[in-house]
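User: I'm putting together a teaching handout on how multi-component assemblies are represented. Below are the sequence lines for each component of a complex, exactly as they appear in our records. Could you produce the 3D structure of the whole assembly as C-alpha cells, so the students can see both representations side by side? Please keep the chain order the same as the input.
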Amino acid sequence: MTALRFIARRLGALLLLLVIVSFVVFSLLSLAPGSLEQTLLGPTGMTDPASVEAIREKYHLDDSFLERYLHWAAAALRLDFGRSVHSGQPVMDVIVQRLPITAQLGLLTLLLVIAFGLPAGMISAIRRGRFADRLISSVSIVATSAPAFAVAVILIYVFGVQLAWFPPFGTGSGLVDRLHHLALPAVALAVGQFAFMTRQTRAAAMDVVDQDFVVFARGRGLSRSQVLFGYQIRNAALPVIASVGLLLIVSLSGTVLVETAFSLPGVGSLMIDSVSSDDIPVVQGLTLLAAAMVVVVNLLADLAMLALDPRIRMEGKG
Amino acid sequence: MKTQSGPRSGSRRRHAVAGVLAAAAMAMTACGGSTSGGAPKPSGGEIPEFVFATQGTIGSLDLTKDFGAFGPVALINEQLEHSHSDGGFAPGLAAEVSETPKSLVYRLRPDAKFTDGKPVTAADVVFSIERARAAGAQTASYLTSVVKAEATGDNQVTVTLSRPDPALRALFAGAVAVVQKAYVEAHPENYGSSSALPVGSGPYSVGSFTPEQIVLNRNDRYWGEKPKIRQLTIRLLKDDDTTQLAMRSGDVDSTILIDVGNARRYQSIEGTTLIPITGNSISYLSLDTGQAPLSDQHVRKAIAYAIDRKPLFDTLFAGYWKNLEGFMTPDQLASVSSPSEAADFLKGLPQYPFDMERAKSELARSRYPEGFDLTVKVSPTFAWSEKLMLSLKQNLKPLGIDIEVKVVDPKAYVAEVYAHRNLGVKPLELGALTPDAAYILKLLVGSSTAVQNGLNTANFASADIDAAIAVLTSSPDRAKRFEAAKRLLGWIAEQVPYIPLFNQQTVRVMGRGFAYDAAVADQNDYANGSWIYKISATS
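Assistant: Of course. Below is the structure of the complete assembly, with chains in the same order as your input.
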C-alpha cells in the first residue's frame, strides 16, 4: 500500500470517528440534568415565561434530540460551528483564541518528556539491572502515580510561593515571560508522562542492545557514543514515536486539570467552563477538535515511522 | 446591588456573582498577620495600576448576555442612577429622576459623552432599555413591569409601567447598561466580546478583554469625578486558592471573598486588611408544607429548634455571618421602614434558638411523635448545606427522625427546584437585587410562585398571603407596604415554612499598600461602580 493510499484510508477513518464522537457527546450532553435556559436565565429569569420562550426558540430547545443534532451537524459540514451561547462569538474564534496557550504548553511538555525521558530510558537499558536502572524505575513509578493536579499544587506552593522562582499562575507576555509562566505547568504535565516515555525507551533500547549489529559494531572498535548515537537511538526511536499518539491523549486529559490549577486560559479550561455552563456549540467544537487532533497526530507518527524505517517502506510496497 | 438569587446552577461565575454584595456596616481591620500599628493611612494621589481579582468567568461584557459582568460593566457603561443599600439613589447618567406610580422620568445630563466623543442621547437610552427588557435577555425578568420607554424631550426619557412597581427604580439602576445605539446595531451578534468591545460613557473604557482579565483604562472624557486609578485590571481567577496565591505574591491588590471560611488564610498575608461587607442575601431551609410529614407545623418547628447555628457557622464562615431574626435582614426592609423600626419588629417575631427540649416537645405534639425517615438532597454549590444537614441529622436522631443526606449534582438540584417536585427539605439562598422587601417575599410566598419555575419551594400560599403580596408589590403607600410585609413575615415566623439560617457577609480584602474607605462603604459599591473611588494608596 503506498503512502498516499495509507493516508487516504486514515482520513476516511477520521471522518467516521468525528461523526461518532460528535453524536455520542451530543447525546451525553442532552442526558445531563439541567437545561440551557436555566443556566442562561438564572432563577429570576425563569420566572418570566416570555424570556423562557425566547431562549427555547432561539436555541431550538423544543425540537427533538435528533432534529437538534442534525441541525448542528448540517451546519458543521459547512464548517459553521455556530456561536458560543455565552459570548455570542463564533465557536471557532473562541477556540482559536485559547488554542495557542494549550499548544505551547503541550509542546513544552513534550520537549521536557523527551529531554528527560529518553536519556533516562537509554541509561536504564544500558545499565539494566544496576542501581541506575532501579533508581530511574522507582522515580518513574512515583511520578506516574502522582496525579497531575496534586503535582501542580505542590509545584505552585514550593516553587511559586515559597521559593518564588516561578509565577504561580497566569500566562505572561512575550516569549521569555511566557516560558517562565509555562514552566511549572509543563513540569506538572510532564511528570505524569515521564514514566511512560522512560519505560518505552528502556524496552526498545534493551531490545536493540542485544541485537547482532550492535555487538558487531562494538566488536569493530566503534566507540560507545558512536554506537549509541549512530545505531542504538535511531533503532530504539521507532516504538517511542509510535507511542507519541498515546502520549498525546494522556496529555489532553492532563491539560484540563493543569490549566485549571494554574489558571491558564487554554482549551482545557474552556472545556470545563463550557460543559458546566451548557455551552453546547463550544463543547461540540472542542470535542471534534480533540478527536481530529488525536487522529492526525497518530497519522503523523505513522508517517514518521514510514520515513525513518526503510523496512516498513519495503513491506508496504510488497 | 445585584446578586444571584435562588438556587444557582453551579457555574462558578454565578457563584461569584452571588457573593458580591458590597459595603461594610462597620469598619474593621484584620487582625493577625496584617500591618502592625493599626489601620493603614490613606495618602491620596494617583494610583497608576490596580489589580482586582474576581472568581469565575465572564463570557461577555454585554449585560444582557452575561449578568455576571455587572461589576466591570458598571464602570464602562455608566448606570442611569447609582442605587444605595439604604434605598437611596445618587445621580448617574440621569441628573434627575421623577417617579409616579406608573412611570419613571429620567432627565439625562447634557454633557455625557461616549468614549468615541459622541454624546449620550435619549435615543441611546431608549435603545438600551428596550434591549435590556427584550425577551431572552438575562436582565429581562427584572423589567417585566415596563410597557415602553420613549424619548419625551431632548434629554428626557419616560418609562411607562403596566402596574405600580416600587422596586423597579432600583432594579433599573442595576439592570440597564446604557449602550451606544449605533455601535450595537453595527455589531448585533458579538457586541460585548473581544471583537466588539463595549463603547460606554463611564469612568473607564475597555483596553482589552480576554478570558484571563479585563483591562480598563481611565476615561478622560468622563463627565464626573475622575478616579485615582489610571489602569484597572480585573483578573478572572479560577478559585480561591489561586486568588490567595496571587495576593501573597503581590500580583493582585484586592479581591472580594466569597468563601469567607478562607478569611483566615488571607489574614495571614502580611499587609492585608479585611473589611466585612454586610450582604443582602438570606440563606434558609425550605420545608414543603404540602408534603407529609413536613405539612405538620409541629414537625417544622421541631426541625427549627434542632439547628445549632453558632458553632457551625462560626467555623464555616470564620465568624463572618449574621444571625437572621425573622426571615429578612433589617436592610432588606429599608424601602418600607426605618432600620430601627425594622430591627425591632424582626426581633419581636417568634424565634427558634437551639433547644433540643423544645424540639422534643414540638415533635411529641405532632402527628409523628415516634419520628420518621427523611431524605434530603444537598448541592455542592451551597457548601454549608451538607454540613448543616449532617449536624441536623445528629441532633434529630435521638428524636427518632432519621435523615439521609445525599449530595447531588448542582444542575440536577436546580432542575428539581424548577420542576417543583420532590421539594421536601431544600437548603437554599436568595440574594436580593434591591433593598426591597417586595422582591424577596413575592418570589418566595404566594400562589403565583408555587408553580414550576417559581421559587416558592415551601408551597406557602393562601388567599391572605396573596392579598398581602398584592399590597406589598403595588401599593404606593409606604406604611401600607410595611404593614403587609409585617403580616407576611409574621406568618412565616409562626408557621415556619422557611427556617431562616444566616445572612452571610462577604469580605473585601485590600492588599499591602492600599486602603478602602470603610466609613463610606456600602454593599452596593461593587455593583454601582463607586468602589473605585473609595480605594486609596497608603503611605
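A couple of points students might notice: Chain A touches chain B through 53 residues (CB under 8 Å). The radius of gyration of chain A is 24 Å.
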